[in-house]
Amino acid sequence: MPTIHDAVIIPGDGIGPAVSAAVAKVLSAAGAPVRFHEHHAGLAALEDGDDVLPQSTVDAVREHHVALKGPCTTPVGKGFTSVNVQLRKRLDLFAAIRPVRSLPGVPTRYDDVDLVIFRENTEGLYSGVENEIVPGVVTSLKIASRDACTRIARRAFVYAKRRGRKKVTVFHKANIMKLSDGLFLDCVKQVHDDEFNDIPYETQIIDAGCMKIVQDPTQFDLLLMENLYGDVISDLAAGLVGGLGVVPGSNLGDEDAVFEAVHGSAPDIAGKGIANPLALLMSAVMMLNHLSETRKDDRCLKAANAIKKAYNRALEDNQKTGDLGGTLTTDGFADAVIERLNG
Known about the structure:
Blueprint: E1 5-10, H1 16-29, E2 34-38, H2 43-47, H3 55-64, E3 66-69, H4 83-91, E4 95-101, E5 114-120, E6 124-134, E7 137-143, H5 146-163, E8 168-172, H6 180-195, E9 201-205, H7 206-215, E10 222-225, H8 227-238, E11 248-252, E12 257-261, H9 278-295, H10 298-316, H11 330-339
Parallel strand pairs: 1-2, 1-3, 3-12, 5-10, 8-9, 8-10
Antiparallel strand pairs: 4-5, 4-11, 6-7, 11-12
Helix pairs in contact: 1-9, 1-11, 5-6, 7-8, 9-10, 10-11
């Protein structure tokens, strides 16, 4: 009997369950050889009387090594720590990869954006080490280690080499944060010089880099940076191609991988059936490509290619949800993709 690949699905909360269900329906229709095991995190887990990130969910990802995750709500300024940050730390998912590409049928002021954001996922200010020194005075500790900086640099250059990327640009603020960002730059340069000196490499102070991205994104290819910068830049870059509803993401470690949409849980439209499932569907395509590479299963690649072709055709045919100027519901877009799977 053909192998079926077990994977965890974490629906999340807000619009998460709706977009997750839509994506699972498309994968099933495409014949993707994946069997999902549902586990919870975020508000959905709290409502079940569990921790915000249950140990059973973490254990399930460790068992199956692959997960597709819907968005989870993170309270602003209070409440529990981000589920995303916790999951990345506990599974050591040190590399966040976010492709940002122009899509057919989604017009923006740019026609040919093709960027990949590589983000160190476990350190920096997102380490969450904060203290109130005295009333009214708070410090946040930015952490950078040679090991973490080196491994994200190596993963980025390996990706660039395998995928034929033209150039790696490191965004930094080492003119001010001379030790932490300075260490990041030193590690990247050493990895480049020792192992990947055939790949063009440059550095860019991040504030000037932001200006250059919005002036002309085609001057960049693969962008490598520390945690906080990567979070901000990936959202900025999403604005170049139509918004957070059309940008996928992956979080990779040495053993495990979690694929997720970049956008949040959008509680204001939860339950209305109008959320765009495309970003999570694109993340599922990344998951299938990952399974194809790691499990050596061409069926996963075939399903990934079919789904990508189908959602591109749907967009070209103006089959879109409201955030992209269309009228389709969440399920309506999934059905439009399914109708084009064999076309």
